[in-house]
Write a structure and sequence with these properties.
Blueprint: H1 2-12, H2 26-33, H3 46-55, H4 60-69, H5 72-76, H6 80-87, H7 98-104, H8 114-125, H9 129-140, H10 149-161, H11 166-182, H12 186-205, H13 207-215, H14 225-234, E1 239-240, E2 252-255, E3 261-264, H15 275-285, H16 293-300, H17 304-312, H18 317-320, H19 323-331, H20 357-368, H21 376-380, E4 402-413, E5 422-428, E6 431-437, H22 439-444, H23 446-451, E7 454-464, E8 467-477, H24 480-488
Parallel strand pairs: 1-3, 6-8
Antiparallel strand pairs: 2-3, 4-5, 4-7, 5-6, 7-8
Helix pairs in contact: 1-13, 2-12, 4-12, 7-8, 8-9, 10-11, 12-13, 13-14, 17-19
Length: 493
């Protein structure tokens, strides 16, 4: 966020801070409700993205609840589904007493925050303020059961003696046990929600600024730079490659058409290029572009390895042409000799031709972690099962439809609260594909989902409340298609 505000100041010449970001923007909530939250603090995980279209936040307090409810505690305490059913009008909101209503009315009768549990212990079970604070400390320990067991009988007996039902008492205790695994104080959730809202506002209204700041803050978050760049492009941001005569030390903003900010990848994206070398390069360039490799070498005084890293990243294109030619030329750099001031570069045409599409994409990922060329799945699409559906086309299929899809594996998760369900996220040239892999399939095909870089899936579509998954029936490792395409196209002759 700080980097974003700095970029806004330098690009637009205006000040912005967390306090000055316009509040309660409907466009921000519309974006968040679609689960379009890659890069947004706290709500970019797959679990949060699946929750957002169901909860559909429409105000700041909804974000406070969103932050707090997707936690092991509320999930294990069976608070998530009751809250959603009540919010969506599928279940009546009831309270066993007026005192309980006062505590839980903001969260539709479901305790979501630690403060609510403490107040419930006082109004429903007769706890003193000191006892309630002891309960809070026990919950804050985030242990499975141990520290809360001494409170069980005291809570249940207290509620029964005040006329609450056995069912209510047992349910509340189960929810308190859930908080023992990870429950949020409301104040903590509110602080996080503010960061969520400001991050989402920047993504919605200043996507180039937001992505630039994210790239300059790596490593962080759930997503690699390649996914962040694709996210920016899907939001209409023009992204330009690393260039010896245009890039800065970090990713930066350039003025595009009609003054629209354009994201320029910086030298910090170049693998193997030290920061001090990048700083020296930018300082040596000043306001006068480099006109040749010899000019670059003379003015910047970079080590031979730095030239190699720049060539591999295709950053020397304006001086040497394609990256194979640049690699050829910088490979011939000789050390400075006392009698000569400038390093000597290899002359003549390189023996290697221009890299093919797959070689270029693979080299981009290897050297910068980002490609602005065709997505790998687009390059192997014609080699996949002809029935394979793109991510965006999945939404056209009915719930329960048999389906085949494929993509790069970007995340694999088996959270402890998911009862041995494995969640896998694939990425193709159009977006993300979320897989649910039940335990039996995951165990039978463990090698495929653990080792594949490109994974095919056969299964059924599950669509509910604006969320789409594929329930996997069979997984196929298709990583070999990338290697086969590389060889068949003679990219490395």
């Amino acid at each position: 966020l700080r980097r974003s505000f700095d970029l806004i100041r330098s690009y637009y010449g205006r000040e912005l801070s967390m306090a000055a970001v316009p509040a309660e923007d409907p466009q921000v909530y519309e974006m968040v409700s679609r689960g379009d939250t890659v890069g947004v603090f706290q709500i970019e995980s797959r679990a949060q993205m699946a929750m957002l279209p169901r909860l559909r936040p429409a105000c700041f307090y909804d974000l406070v609840i969103e932050v707090a409810i997707i936690r092991p505690g509320p999930i294990q305490g069976d608070m998530v589904h009751p809250y959603l059913r009540r919010r969506n009008g599928k279940e009546p909101v009831t309270y066993p007493s007026e005192a309980v209503r006062e505590v839980l009315k903001r969260t539709l009768g479901v305790p979501i925050f630690q403060e609510q549990v403490m107040k419930l212990a006082m109004v429903a079970a007769g706890f003193s303020a000191g006892e309630a604070d002891s309960l809070r400390r026990a919950m804050a320990a985030w242990r499975r059961r141990g520290d809360l067991e001494p409170f069980e009988q005291r809570l249940i007996d207290g509620m029964l003696s005040r006329g609450y039902s056995e069912e209510f008492a047992q349910q509340l205790y189960r929810q308190i046990l859930g908080f023992g695994q990870y429950g949020f104080p409301e104040s903590h959730a509110a602080s996080f929600a503010l960061l969520v809202y400001v991050s989402a506002w920047l993504k919605r209204h200043e996507p180039a600024v937001f992505t630039c700041a994210l790239l300059n803050s790596q490593p962080m978050g759930f997503y690699a730079p390649s996914q962040l760049v694709q996210m920016a492009e899907s939001h209409g941001v023009e992204v330009r490659p690393v260039d010896i005569n245009a890039s800065q030390v970090e990713c930066s903003l350039e003025r595009g058409e009609f003054g629209k900010p354009v994201l320029r990848l910086g030298f910090n994206r170049v693998s193997g290029l030290a920061q001090d070398a990048a700083v020296r390069l930018v300082e040596a360039r000043g306001n006068r572009p480099f006109v040749s490799l010899s000019d670059l070498a003379e003015r910047a005084g970079l080590h031979r390895d730095a030239h190699g890293a720049l060539a591999a990243a295709d950053a020397l294109q304006s001086l040497s042409g394609h990256r194979h030619r640049a690699r050829w030329q910088v490979a011939g750099i000789e050390k400075r000799l006392p009698a000569f001031g400038v390093p000597v570069f290899a002359e003549g045409e390189p023996l290697l031709p221009a890299p093919g599409p797959m070689a270029s994409v693979i080299s981009d990922y290897a050297s910068t972690g980002v490609t602005l060329r065709d997505h790998p799945l687009a390059l192997i699409r014609d080699r996949l099962d002809s029935r394979c559906v793109q991510a965006t086309a999945l939404w056209d299929l009915p719930d329960g439809a048999a389906v085949c899809a494929a993509g790069l594996v970007i995340t694999r998760q088996r959270p402890g609260s998911a009862k041995n369900v494995t969640f896998i996220t694939l990425e193709d040239e159009t977006g993300f594909i979320n897989l649910v892999v039940w335990e039996q399939v995951a165990e039978r095909q463990r090698e495929e989902w653990l080792n594949a870089s490109v994974l095919g899936v056969y299964g059924r579509v599950q669509k509910q409340d604006g969320v789409l998954h594929i329930i996997a029936r069979r997984l196929v490792d298709q990583s070999h298609l990338l290697a086969e395409l590389r060889v068949s196209s003679h990219d490395f002759r």
